[in-house]
């Protein structure tokens, strides 16, 4: 049994995509309330990366833009800043998604860690988060947590997409 | 981005986005609400009785203080009349609101209240708790409003030191901290001094406590002191808060 992406049309998994985005936004919102939220990766961005690699017939820029705007409203940052970051990351994923799809889940997790590191660098320079001395390491460790999260997300969604493709 | 950052002309767009996020915020706080509900239900009868007795005593003390406050107000009015000053205390209308969501991330410090446009809550209204100023409303939706806390790095409030009357600007530093700026090195500032709103800028009413000075650093090269303070309001713990209205309540209604 492969752990790579399963060929599927967007129309077949439309509800799964919307539900996953909704759940990701809820989890992201929950993380805002937690003191240790610095370690939590942006789940909506990770879902966006997953679906960008899954459905190769569309660019997903509109999804990136809308999710970014919602993140801006959620985090009280300048409107459009997260949209821009999400679109830039989606663009990079679009360039390499065929190669990305050919990787195993663990290899994908390593690649995603670099995407998340780039996201943290952009966050650091665009928003200048107020970090105390002990929080720097937490802030920069987020991509490592993202690697673990990606493994769980990718395997769960592959299971769901497999079920849908069989039906 | 530029339109939002410099002019904030996208306020309506942000309000629409926040309205969309309302159900998501509610879903995110649902587990905590369930936890609170369960823990409250298991509170013993004795604890409730004790709390009730404590609250009754508190109400009695507060009522006594209100009587003193009314007398003091009249006296201040009389003295101000004699001095011919214009800085009169305003009796402001207040609304009680409940904190429904809060942010604890390093990008922004805010809370969400369960009162919005439909409850006549508007942008720039001041939010306080029983200790002091918490922040001001920056966005509203029909049913909720978002309050930027005084500890947010983007927030600044004109203040004065209660003991000396020295004016300055209190800026948020994130992480539940604030810093008092523009206080010259030769000022008579002490650790423990209470900082209150000065009323300049006409957003925050004068005389409300804001923070207490916790540390003073003198830098050799800087002409101003580096003053670190702690907010007096319970920014993280407060559940019920008061939203002050911009219009002044008529004295006849008191």
3D architecture notes:
The complex is a heterodimer of chains A (167) and B (254). Chain A is an all-alpha fold and 167 residues long. In chain A, 74% of the residues lie in helices and 0% in strands. In chain A, helix 1 packs antiparallel against helix 2 and helix 1 (14-33) runs parallel beside helix 3. The mean pLDDT of chain A is 89. With 254 residues, chain B is of the alpha+beta class. Chain B folds into two domains: 1-88; 97-246, Thrombin, subunit H. Chain B is built from three helices and twelve strands; from the N terminus they run αααββββββββββββ. In chain B, the strands form two sheets. Chain B has a six-stranded antiparallel β-barrel with strand order 1-2-5-4-3-12. Chain B has a six-stranded antiparallel β-barrel with strand order 6-7-8-11-10-9. The radius of gyration of chain B is 20 Å and the shape is globular. Chain B starts with a helix and ends in a 6-residue tail after the last strand. At the A-B interface, helix 1 and helix 3 of A face helix 2 of B.
Topology:
The complex is a heterodimer of chains A (167) and B (254).
Chain A: H1 14-33, H2 43-54, H3 61-75, H4 81-102, H5 105-127, H6 135-166
Helix pairs in contact in A: 1-2, 1-3, 2-4, 2-6, 3-4, 4-5, 5-6
Chain B: H1 2-7, H2 11-41, H3 45-83, E1 92-102, E2 110-113, E3 126-128, E4 133-140, E5 145-149, E6 156-161, E7 167-174, E8 177-181, E9 194-197, E10 209-217, E11 226-231, E12 240-248
Antiparallel strand pairs in B: 1-2, 1-12, 2-5, 3-4, 3-12, 4-5, 6-7, 6-9, 7-8, 8-11, 9-10, 10-11
The biggest beta sheet of chain B is recorded as: 6 strands, antiparallel, barrel
Number of strands of chain A: 0
Helix content of chain B: 25-40%
CATH superfamily of the largest domain in chain B: Rod shape-determining protein MreC, domain 2
What's the count of strands of chain B? 12
Low-confidence stretches of chain B: 250-254
CATH topology of the largest domain in chain B: Thrombin, subunit H
Q: What is the highest CATH level, the class of the largest domain in chain B?
A: Mainly Beta
* Unreliable stretches of chain A: none
Shape of chain A: globular
Report the principal-axis shape of chain B. globular
Indicate the multimeric state. Answer: heterodimer
